Amino acid sequence: MTREFHCLRYGEQEIQYEIVRRLRKTLEIAVEPDASVVIAAPEDATLDAIEAKPRRRAAWVTRQQRYFSQFLPRTPERRFVAGETHLYLGRQYRLKVVPHVQESVKLIRGFIVVQTDRPTRPEVTRELVEAGYRDRAHIKFPERIELCLGLFPDPEAFRPMALIVRQTRQRWGPCHRLVVCYSIVV
């Protein structure tokens, strides 16, 4: 499987797209939820044939990108510096970075308090906050699973055998009888 990146002008707009060559017979164009464009093409397809696809479908592509862009987060990239706001369970918390010998993350009255021996290093703060989110997820998610299981007539028939918490780019994960995967989007 090979990947190539290309660009197309459509009126005033520039459409960037990725070509992924794989074992298949037809060309497929997809606009992903993050508004990126991916073209799946057969390994032996010519570049001209592939480039014709987004040119023909440019109006549809821009329409799909506009649709998905309304769902994209409008918050700026997090820098993990004191005073910045972060979300936790639907509420905003201000980040407070405190010099301390012991590293920890606590939620205290509207603040995410990060104690660290390196308070001027945002990458350390980021790691601590993300670890704090993961730790809290291992507590909160089983609580939510129990609440949801109570809605079934036979909860034990639907009880998952495992819970996996991992950081992903999307906000969803698979859920079936064997495993429940939850995504943490930071």
What features would you describe in this structure?
The chain has 186 residues and is α/β, with parallel strands linked by helices. The chain has 2 domains: 2-69, no CATH class; 85-184, no CATH class. 27% of the residues lie in helices and 35% in strands. It is built from 3 helices and 10 strands. The protein has helices at 47-56, 58-69, 122-149; strands at 2-10, 13-22, 28-31, 37-42, 85-88, 91-99, 104-108, 111-116, 162-167, 179-184. It has a 4-stranded mixed β-sheet, covered by helices on one side. Strands 5-6-8-7 form a 4-stranded mixed β-sheet, covered by helices on one side. β3 and β4 form a beta hairpin. The chain is extended, with a radius of gyration of 22 Å.
- Largest pleated sheet: 4 strands, mixed
Query: Could you name the ranges where pLDDT drops below 50 across 5 or more consecutive residues?
Result: none
User: What structural category do the secondary elements indicate?
Assistant: alpha/beta
**Average pLDDT:** 90
CA-based gyration radius? 22 Å
Total strands: the figure is 10
Give the N-terminus to C-terminus distance in angstroms. Answer: 30 Å
Main-sheet strand order equals 1-2-4-3
Quaternary structure of the protein? single chain
DSSP strand content: 25-35%
Number of helices: 3
What is the string of helix and strand elements?
A: EEEEHHEEEEHEE
Helical content (DSSP H or I, runs of 4+): 25-40%
- Outline type: extended
How many structural domains can be distinguished in the coordinates? 2
